[in-house]
């Protein structure tokens, strides 16, 4: 399991940290925010067949409260947001079906936009969220949010594949025939690779008439020299 670098900053030691590691079957997300930032966030997730409420992370005092409802076959795949003025001023949840947000959308420089997207394509790869809020005396806003992800073993345990799409076990080689120099039918058979480009066998070159005449002429000269 990996803890990805979050959107926002974790440099402030006074921030209040929250963690929902392992709570991946999220069904509802409640977000409370003002025009200046995210004030609180809370999750409802499935655990052992029942809905369970997480702790409310953050503080009261938000002007707007929004509920994000995820369908039974919907799961988080990415996060995007803007961090400025020591808080997150825009937040969007991305799923395998749609995008929810942005929440607390303020005018911002596009260079401040950040997205966490590692190509999640299976529910088992998302493993929960984490983040932090500033103290009340500093505004009590969401200062960071990140994701836990895991490799999907159903994918990585498969046989490695070549660029042509076949697994390495799909390579079969034809046994090479013996090279018979005395027979015109003898030839060397190149390996026939199933996953690749076909290669024609290299056949033995037939003797030309000129070569045969020269060969007989040389034999005649050697016979005369031996007399």
Automatic annotation (TrEMBL):
> Which InterPro entries would you find in this protein's record?
Jacalin-like_lectin_dom, Jacalin-like_lectin_dom_sf
What Pfam families does the record tag this protein with? Jacalin
Which keywords, in A-to-Z order, does the entry hold?
Answer: Lectin
Q: Does the keyword Nucleotide-binding apply?
A: no
**Residue span(s) of domain Jacalin-type lectin:** 1-151
The record's GO molecular-function terms, alphabetically, read: carbohydrate binding
Q: Which family is this protein grouped under?
A: Belongs to the jacalin lectin family.
Q: What is this protein called?
A: Jacalin-type lectin domain-containing protein
